[in-house]
Amino acid sequence: MRPLLTGLANIVLLLANTLILIGPLLLIALAKLVLPGQSARDTCSRGVMWVAEFWAENCKRIFALLTPTHWDIRGNAELRRDRSYLVISNHQSWVDIPALVQAFNRRTPYFKFFLKQQLIWVPFLGLAFWALDYPFMKRYSKAFLDKNPHMKGKDLEITKAACEKFKRLPVTVVNYLEGTRFTAAKRAQQQSPYRYLLKPKAGGVAFVLSTLGEQIDAVLDVTLVYPGKQVPGFWALLSGQVPKVIMDIQTLELDPALYQGDYENDPAFRLQVQDWVSDLWLAKDKRIEQLRSENHD
């Protein structure tokens, strides 16, 4: 009964937090949409970020009040809000997102994900995502490009144009290289060479680097571990059944050579990025094993 009550209380408070703050966020978003002048729009962007950070901080307070989860966060002491970061993380659960909030909110610029362009048409959320400067990606399929070769590279140009605003404001971009949440079944299906990870997709991070490389001050290599035999779902967090979450954060310098090339058309450059990703993933797999053994998992 206690987990059920805890979960319901969390849902009520998190929903109230969202409903109260979505109004001011959308009002600032509308002002950003209609106000003339780049300076006014940048001011609105800062206002939207402030609302989003306040919302996230309230979520942290709610979890601290109602749940016993210990957030064991290592390596975020030197982060700064005036720098831009690329976050690379393994992906296991919907709990990963609250974990990112715990680690980075008000320590780095409010984090962003690359979104599919269709999401901009979702009522309310699309406007909120636009106001938060989430980059909307327009990706063309291989079949489409085969029929329309003149469109090759246009998706990257569109996304680069959408990311021009990051030259004016710091940003934290999150990229899950596995592309989906890890499960033992997916690992077996992929025949992944890693014990705790799926195969990483170098193309996704190459896309981010080619778009934002010059704006990225450092790479934050995040390793998430949930001690225990099972990876918890979001309900487990809401109902107070996640005793501990470990987040190991390592700050890496970004080699300019990783974004000064053509990933799609240059095989040597593509291999260079893939080798870099492979080295990251080998080290991360060993780090997960070490963290799990330290916690007697």
TrEMBL record:
Keyword terms of this UniProt record: Acyltransferase, Transferase
GO molecular function: acyltransferase activity
SUPFAM superfamilies, A to Z: Glycerol-3-phosphate (1)-acyltransferase (SSF69593)
InterPro entries: Plipid/glycerol_acylTrfase
NCBIfam families: PRK14014.1
PANTHER family: 1-ACYLGLYCEROL-3-PHOSPHATE ACYLTRANSFERASE-RELATED (PTHR10983), LYSOCARDIOLIPIN ACYLTRANSFERASE 1 (PTHR10983:SF16)
UniProt name for this protein: 1-acyl-sn-glycerol-3-phosphate acyltransferase
Organism this protein belongs to: Ectopseudomonas chengduensis
The organism's taxonomic lineage, starting at the top: Bacteria, Pseudomonadati, Pseudomonadota, Gammaproteobacteria, Pseudomonadales
